[in-house]
């Protein structure tokens, strides 16, 4: 959930709550393991053999998988893997993110916009040999509509559905209660009915016991070990064409320095989420390319608004002083975003303002005039004094209960930016007379879900369609009871925000909807439970002697890891193959090198109605 980074977008930024059936045709013996130090493994001098490059593309990850069930998963690494293994009705074009066919080849709405009909492609096969049909999509949506546990991850997309049917294998009909703007942006993995209808409790089934997992995406999950690896093989039946690498492995590294060292040795092919120092060092390395481009994530501070459930019961132990908007305002006035961008992100980020990153220009909003909480420590002092939080003889701010203002902040132990930013916050808030204890944990999700925090570093990866990252701040996203897990990011429940969310959800005019989304960001900013610090660049690197060609998204200047689609790993071509190919091996790279200068250009994606979302660093994604 959290960067809960919940992350990311979250997650991340990234973070999130945490959560497979035998298919014919792939056996354990068919998996090729390339062990470090073997004849096929990369050479210790940083080079790599052609056979290793041809056989396996290894991606280093630092985030734990919350679940391999697409009904439960919210973290970026998990949702990214689901994009590889299951088709959605529609996809995003790699060049500019406009809607393109996925499992559906065409779609149309009735004149009143209350009935949508999708034509399901004939050439999509499940990896066990059965054809994917409209019945699979209808069953997926109906399960989410009738079982709250199946709606944990993506229930916002089906909450407005009235009826879903499959009149024939190639026709899916969705009837709505009211118009819904996301009908060409339903970011829901479609699962095989003949497999999943055997599942009992969707709240507990993590889809991680039997392999290979039946899917219809470009890859098939063949093995998984918690916090070790996830292995995938190409789906030879994939309608768009099979991936070029013989195996895709996501390998877990708790320490990012260890992941970078593995990249230098050729033991992994790709490393995301680099620190600026790591990226700068890698630019001088032979056979390594660094990608530095505007990202799709935000990096934020979240405050505990008083954790509660839909049944009205409160829980957790958040500091009640943070329920005072004047305290939150003072804290944010004492944050120097320029310093964070320059010193923590070393200019590989843009200063944070609204909730949606500037990469999504249609929805980007920023505060102006007196509403902007620009760095002003003197004003922060005045706000606290006027609100009755005076300093005592020891220079400590005292709350209305007579106790010193001392807060805790959740920090990701594997996220260097959290630790670095926390030191600045301790300094800045300390001058106000406010103490800050930094809790850097391997797993921030547990205390976050229990409401046992005061503040937290938060973040999500935002999709072209912002519906999902907006939905996680609605009252409907709260857990049903304190013992349950909801889709909420930070327990925010604001009737005004909910009213705006409902309006944008039924608005089909792109400009009008964008205006409402900006109002929502304004409301989120003014309530002060969430404050965006920065929009980090996508800072990542790969070995050019293993990966000869790969697509970023957007193609002109975008990210490779955590895309709104499967383009990067599906398009990746082994270096040995491109070296022997007479075609243009550089046309698909779309990679920029830009270390040392801030990327301030806004990538105008030209978002039209109906493009999609997510995924949260820990991203939640």
UniProtKB/TrEMBL annotation:
Compartment(s) where it occurs, according to its Swiss-Prot or TrEMBL record: Cell envelope
Record keyword Transmembrane present: yes
UniProt GO BP: peptide transport
InterPro entries to which the protein is assigned, alphabetical: Peptide/Ni-bd, SBP_5, SBP_5_dom
Name of one Pfam family that matches: SBP_bac_5
Record family assignment: Belongs to the bacterial solute-binding protein 5 family.
Primary site of residence: other
SUPFAM superfamilies: Periplasmic binding protein-like II
Tagged with keyword Ribosomal protein: no
UniProt source species: Streptomyces laurentii
PANTHER family: PERIPLASMIC BINDING COMPONENT OF ABC TRANSPORTER, PERIPLASMIC OLIGOPEPTIDE-BINDING PROTEIN-RELATED
One cellular-component annotation, GO: cell envelope
Coiled-coil boundaries: none
Membrane-spanning residues: 590-611
Solute-binding protein family domain ranges (all copies): 100-471
Protein name: Peptide transport system secreted peptide binding protein
């Amino acid at each position: 959930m959290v960067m809960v980074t919940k992350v990311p977008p979250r997650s991340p930024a990234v973070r999130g709550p945490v959560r497979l059936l035998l298919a014919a045709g792939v056996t354990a013996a068919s998996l090729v393991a390339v062990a470090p130090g073997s004849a096929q493994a990369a050479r210790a001098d940083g080079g790599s053999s052609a056979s290793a490059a041809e056989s396996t593309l290894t991606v280093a990850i630092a985030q734990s998988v919350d679940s391999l069930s697409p009904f439960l998963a919210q973290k970026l690494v998990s949702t990214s893997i689901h994009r590889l293994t299951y088709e959605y009705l529609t996809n995003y074009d790699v060049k500019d993110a406009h809607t393109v066919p996925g499992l559906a080849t065409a779609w149309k709405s009735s004149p009143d916009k209350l009935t949508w009909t999708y034509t399901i492609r004939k050439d999509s096969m499940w990896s066990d040999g059965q054809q994917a049909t409209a019945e699979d999509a209808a069953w997926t949506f109906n399960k989410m509509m009738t079982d709250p546990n199946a709606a944990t991850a993506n229930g916002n997309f089906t909450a407005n559905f009235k009826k879903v049917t499959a009149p024939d294998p190639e026709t899916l009909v969705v009837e709505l209660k009211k118009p819904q703007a996301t009908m060409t942006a339903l970011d829901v993995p479609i699962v095989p009915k003949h497999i999943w209808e055997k599942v009992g409790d969707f709240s507990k089934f993590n889809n991680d016991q039997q392999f290979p997992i039946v899917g219809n995406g470009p890859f098939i999950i063949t093995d998984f070990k918690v916090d070790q690896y996830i292995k995938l093989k190409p789906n030879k039946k994939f309608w768009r064409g099979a991936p070029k690498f013989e195996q895709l492995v996501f390998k877990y590294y708790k320490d990012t320095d260890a992941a970078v060292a593995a990249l230098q040795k050729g033991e992994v092919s790709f490393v995301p989420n680099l620190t600026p120092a790591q990226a700068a060092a890698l630019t001088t390395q032979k056979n390594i390319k660094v990608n530095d481009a505007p990202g799709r994530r935000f990096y934020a501070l979240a405050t505990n608004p008083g954790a509660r459930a839909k049944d009205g019961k409160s829980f957790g132990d958040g500091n009640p002083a943070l329920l005072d908007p004047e305290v939150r305002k003072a804290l944010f006035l004492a944050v120097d975003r320029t310093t964070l961008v320059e010193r923590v992100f070393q200019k590989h980020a843009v200063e944070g303002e609204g909730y949606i990153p500037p990469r999504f220009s249609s929805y980007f909003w920023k505060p102006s005039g007196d509403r902007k909480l620009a760095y002003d420590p003197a004003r922060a002092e005045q706000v606290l004094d006027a609100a009755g939080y005076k300093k005592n003889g020891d220079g400590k701010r005292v709350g209305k209960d007579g106790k010193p203002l001392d807060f805790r902040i959740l920090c990701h132990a594997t996220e260097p930016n959290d630790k670095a930013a926390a030191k600045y916050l301790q300094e800045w808030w300390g001058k106000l007379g406010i103490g800050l204890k930094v809790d850097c944990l391997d797993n921030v999700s547990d205390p976050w879900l229990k409401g046992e925090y005061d503040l937290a570093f938060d973040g999500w990866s935002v999709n072209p369609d912002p519906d999902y990252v907006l939905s996680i701040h609605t009252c409907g996203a709260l857990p049903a009871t304190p013992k349950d897990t909801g889709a909420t990011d930070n327990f925010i429940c604001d009737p005004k925000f909910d009213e705006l969310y409902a309006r944008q959800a039924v608005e089909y005019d792109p400009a009008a909807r964008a205006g409402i989304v900006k109002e929502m960001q304004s409301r989120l900013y003014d309530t002060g439970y969430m404050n965006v610090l920065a929009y980090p660049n996508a800072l990542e690197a790969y070995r050019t002697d293993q990966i000869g060609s790969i697509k970023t998204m957007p193609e002109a200047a975008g990210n490779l890891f955590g895309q709104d689609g499967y383009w990067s790993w599906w398009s990746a071509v082994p270096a040995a193959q491109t070296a022997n190919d007479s075609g243009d091996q550089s046309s698909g790279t779309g990679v920029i090198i830009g270390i040392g200068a801030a990327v301030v250009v806004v990538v105008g994606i030209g978002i039209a109605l109906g493009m999609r979302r997510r995924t949260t660093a820990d991203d939640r994604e």
